[in-house]
Structures are given as C-alpha cells and as structure tokens.
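Run log, item B.
One chain of 93 residues. Sequence copied directly from the ordering sheet:
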Amino acid sequence: MCLGVPARIVAILDAERMLATAEILGERREVNLSCIADPGGTLSDEVGRWVLIHVGFAVSRVDETDAQITLDMLRQVGEAEDELGDLKAALLA
C-alpha cells in the first residue's frame, strides 16, 4: 500500500534540480517537484500549493480542504496509536 501525505510547498530550494521545501504537520522536508512541474512554467508558482508527498516526491496537487481532512485523519490515527500504546504499557506493567 502506498501512502501520499499532504504537504504545503513553502519554498523553492533549487529550481534546476526541482527541489523544494514542503511542510508536513509542522515538519519541513526537502521534496522533488519533477512529477508535478508544468512544462514551461516556473516552480515559484508551486509555493503555497498543497501536494501529496510519496517517498520524497510531490506526486500530485491537492485541494487545501482535502489536504486538511486527510491530515486530521492522520492525526486521529496517531492519537489512537498513542492510546493503544499507553493501554498496552499499563496492561504489561
């Protein structure tokens, strides 16, 4: 199963190599924009846009509302995993 994580492009690092900085849940990561770059366009147009990131590549653009819904679900999964871990630790103590 593949998982694309929504992120917002916040800066272009190296236009020639199509590298940008994306923010994912408050963390910043270097990502490659070659899969979504428009031929003849400029990468600076991508700043502020939401994309799905998979293994360091922006694989598609997404709507901000859809991105926020997905991020909320990922946060809920993380919280549930934390609660299960706490429960398991308490049971094994």
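Observations after the first pass:
- The two ends are 34 Å apart (CA to CA).
- Residues 45 and 69 are 24 Å apart (CA to CA).
Flagged for discussion on Thursday.
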